[in-house]
Design brief:
about 60 residues, mainly beta, two-stranded antiparallel sheet, binds zinc ion
């Protein structure tokens, strides 16, 4: 299994975490307070597996102040 190990730059849009590789696929639904440690996500758009670490809230609706 090939996994991208480099730390990914995370982008969130419309409550979804976007694929770190292509920034087009939605790989994870974000809820207020969502956290993740070494979570593997799979992008259906580009077929890349990425490991993400979410140490702060990324949702831009409920928590953005
Ligand atoms: Zn992708």
């Amino acid at each position: 299994m090939q996994v991208e190990m480099k730390s990914a730059k995370l982008t969130a849009r419309d409550g979804w975490l976007l694929c770190p590789a292509c920034s087009r696929g939605k790989v994870l639904k974000l809820n207020p307070g969502t956290r993740a440690v070494n979570l593997t996500v799979f992008c259906k758009v580009c077929g890349t597996e990425s490991i993400v670490n979410i140490d702060k809230c990324l949702c831009q609706s409920a928590c953005a102040t």
